[in-house]
Amino acid sequence: MQLFYTPDINPTVSQYFLSEEESKHAVRVLRLVNGDAVTLVDGKGGMYHAEIKDAHPKRTILQINAVVTGFNKRNHYLHIAVAPTKNIERTEWFLEKATEIGVDEVSLIICQRSERKEAKVERLNKIITSAVKQSIKAYHPILNEAVTFSQFLKQPFEGQKFMAHCADGEKLALAQSLDKQGRYLILIGPEGDFSPAEIDMALQNGFKAITLGESRLRTETAALEACFEVNFLNRI
Amino acid sequence: MQLFYTPDINPTVSQYFLSEEESKHAVRVLRLVNGDAVTLVDGKGGMYHAEIKDAHPKRTILQINAVVTGFNKRNHYLHIAVAPTKNIERTEWFLEKATEIGVDEVSLIICQRSERKEAKVERLNKIITSAVKQSIKAYHPILNEAVTFSQFLKQPFEGQKFMAHCADGEKLALAQSLDKQGRYLILIGPEGDFSPAEIDMALQNGFKAITLGESRLRTETAALEACFEVNFLNRI
């Protein structure tokens, strides 16, 4: 299935013009011709079944034949706030896998012990978009610009709030604490873990400490484990 | 914690000589000196608490002070047989993450639709060893040389046998089928999925078809999803 990500399309149109970049890809790389079927996703749940009306390398015209809204809509809302890793490839790997498995929103948080103090969201978003197309999702996860831990904690969130940390202390298991088909925000710390002050601040702000198993996981593995557990618990 | 992987050590020794490579790493890179504490794992469950008796760059001598056997022994046996990916980095990511999360044995299977017909096990094993040291495991997962799908199916396995495929047909969920604290073998196919003949052959050989959720997962993501599910189901 040749999937195109076209966030500016809407369900009312009967015709659509591919961007110059997408047109070039369609005609020169995929070698699509008039009459060929293509599928578009708008990132907001809409899947559009279309066909090529005019295969032009700079301005391909598509005829929209059918629209499905709410395609494979997820039954819960998962927001993961994770410290970007020193080796940014690890964060890229996490974003690709989380998109395949299922995630709604990702925030990048710069923590006290973070070795990486910034991250280029534009490039990371491209990784997500590729994964959306490859795994045939009609919803495009949101990726937020990096902010500091304390700035992030100021943002309101309706739903259950969890923090995964490696320090001592009482921790819940998601299997026992997660309310199914709910909204969740999970904090994942940097390579050196959250600082005691950050753990305190989160607990004061209504976050519950959780365990992600007995193994010592890297940041990106922990983030994906959290993603996996939430999706799995909402499946059974 | 400075962890060394020393598969040739055994629990009866009171002294141990690091290899030339490990000695050089200990003295020149880690800059360890006499009296420094180090930890060794033998890959078979043994964790050795030692200290440097003679910090020599080619032949460091360690004094073994304590031994723990069966360190964090797993409560189930998981063998994943997966088709190595065209881009071998993806298989490397899987091996690293599976080692962190928990796996006992990995086999590489060349399937009908595999784009990659061979894989260098020596290099892949180094990835596993690094992950063993980084995630502080005393057990080193076994990695087997690549064989064809039909050759692999001839190998006996005591335990539950599962196959994850994307074709139509009845599929079980591990949540309902897995016997806890058991032995499991799970087959994960190449990018183009298993062929109908391969699926048939597996079902004839006692494998049960399973689903890994509704999402369309890449080979390495599916392999890791299987790994997550088995470990998670044996935790709760």
Can you count the beta strands of chain A?
12
Uncertain regions spanning at least 5 consecutive residues of chain A: none
Q: What structural class results from the helix and strand content of chain A?
A: alpha/beta
* Average pLDDT taken over every residue of chain A: 96
Largest interface: A-B, 27 and 27 residues
What radius of gyration of chain A results from the CA coordinates?
20 Å
Assembly type of the chains comes to homodimer
Q: Tell me what the CATH architecture of the largest domain in chain A is.
A: 3-Layer(aba) Sandwich
Q: Name the helix and strand elements of chain A from N-terminus to C-terminus, one letter apiece.
A: EEHEEEEHEHEHEEHEHEH
* CATH class annotation of the largest domain in chain A: Alpha Beta
Shape of chain A: elongated
CATH topology-level name of the largest domain in chain A: Alpha/beta knot
Describe the strand arrangement of the main beta sheet of chain A, using strand numbers.
Answer: 8-7-6-11-9-12-10
| Straight-line N-to-C gap of chain A | 29 Å
Description:
- 2 copies of one chain form a homodimer.
- With 236 residues, the first copy, chain A, is of the alpha/beta class.
- Chain A folds into 2 domains: 3-68, Hypothetical PUA domain-like, domain 1 (Ribosomal Protein L25, Chain P, Beta Barrel), CATH 2.40.240; 77-233, SPOUT methyltransferase, trefoil knot domain (Alpha/beta knot, 3-Layer(aba) Sandwich), CATH 3.40.1280.
- The first copy, chain A, contains 7 helices and 12 strands.
- Chain A has a 7-stranded parallel beta sheet, sandwiched between helices.
- In chain A, β3 and β4 form a beta hairpin.
- In chain A, α2 packs parallel to α3 and α2 runs parallel beside α7 (219-233).
- Chain A starts with a strand and ends with a helix.
- Chain A binds chain B through residues 72, 93, 97, 100-102, 134-137, 173, 175, 213-218, 221, 224-225, 228-229, 231-232, 235-236, and chain B through 72, 93, 97, 100-102, 134-137, 173, 175, 213-218, 221, 224-225, 228-229, 231-232, 235-236.
